[in-house]
Design a protein that fits this description.
The protein is mainly alpha-helical. The protein folds into two domains: 4-128, no CATH class; 146-265, no CATH class. It has eleven helices and five strands, in the order E-E-E-H-H-H-H-H-H-H-H-H-E-E-H-H. A hairpin with a 5-residue loop joins strand 2 and strand 3 (21-25). Helix 2 packs across helix 4 and helix 6 packs across helix 7. The radius of gyration is 35 Å and the shape is elongated.
Length: 269
């Protein structure tokens, strides 16, 4: 359903493509300029144009109120046909990019709907020309090449394979070890894996106690086995034989290594 113009006071009523409705009165002077801009806005609303949401229509209505205030303060009146090139230039130079953009579009839409003769020639040329408030230039991110995607995929596979291999190794060590809390003997890595499987990665104080020292004691082999994770994963949370743990180990990400083959070739194993 096309947008409809309202009278007394002037306003607009819209139905958008998703079924939402919007209705807004614009009580501003000069009334002639407000009506002309609303007519231009109606030509921009779905299905005639790309404006298709209440928030966007509100931005256009705010532009109407702002330019009407500016024109009224300059002592001008009438409709869009009375807007001079100088007055429009003065307004757009201080309006900001959003207000300039919406009022330009409405004036051009109104002029087109009127057969191209509603605006003064100078005003029409200015409305069709370059914006005063130019938006900063931006460019999209460069997509990955096929070679970069291949390296990224391979790095991810390497991370998963290595982490799973360490996980299986820890399970084997845990099955063969004895709990150090019970004074069990055997290789330190097996004892650490057994303890870690039951309680998770140990704290610094616990690691020291396993060695018979304090919290500052050097990490023994059994504790390193309990906390053994993939040295290449970006962020690896403890899992498998140590459920419920939240220890996080951070290393260079797979994407960083994929971007830098040299760095990848020298990453720790």
């Amino acid at each position: 359903m096309p947008a409809e113009l309202l009278e007394n006071p002037a306003g607009i009523s819209c139905v958008f493509s998703d079924g939402r409705r919007f209705r807004r009165a614009v009580a501003a002077e000069p009334a002639g300029l407000v009506r002309d801009l609303l007519e231009g806005l109606a030509g921009l609303v779905h299905p005639h144009g790309s404006v298709d949401s209440p928030g966007t229509v509100i931005a256009y209505v705010q532009g109407i109120v702002d330019i009407a205030r500016f024109v009224r303060e300059r002592g001008a009146g009438g409709g869009a046909a009375q807007l001079s090139r100088g007055l429009l230039a003065e307004y757009w130079m201080q309006a900001g990019d959003v207000r300039e953009s919406v009022t330009r579009r409405m004036l051009v839409s109104f002029d087109v709907a009127s057969g191209g003769g509603a605006l003064q020639p100078g005003a029409r040329a200015l409305a069709d020309g370059r914006h005063f408030a130019v938006k900063p230039a931006s460019s999209p991110l460069v997509p990955y090449t096929e070679e970069e995607w291949a390296r990224l995929h391979q790095a991810c596979r390497d991370d998963v394979d290595e982490a799973f291999a360490r996980h299986r190794q820890a399970l084997r060590l845990a099955a063969a070890g004895q709990d150090p809390r019970d004074g069990g003997g055997g290789p330190p890595r097996k004892r650490g894996a057994r303890r870690g499987a039951a309680t998770g990665p140990p704290s610094g104080r616990t690691k020291g106690a396993w060695r018979g020292g304090g919290a500052r004691s050097r990490t023994p082999d059994c504790a390193r086995a309990a906390t053994s994770r993939s040295p290449r994963a970006s962020t690896v949370r403890s899992a498998g034989p140590w459920p419920g743990c939240t220890t996080t180990v951070r290393y260079p990400s797979a994407r960083q290594r994929a971007r830098s083959p040299k760095a990848r070739s020298t990453s720790p194993r």
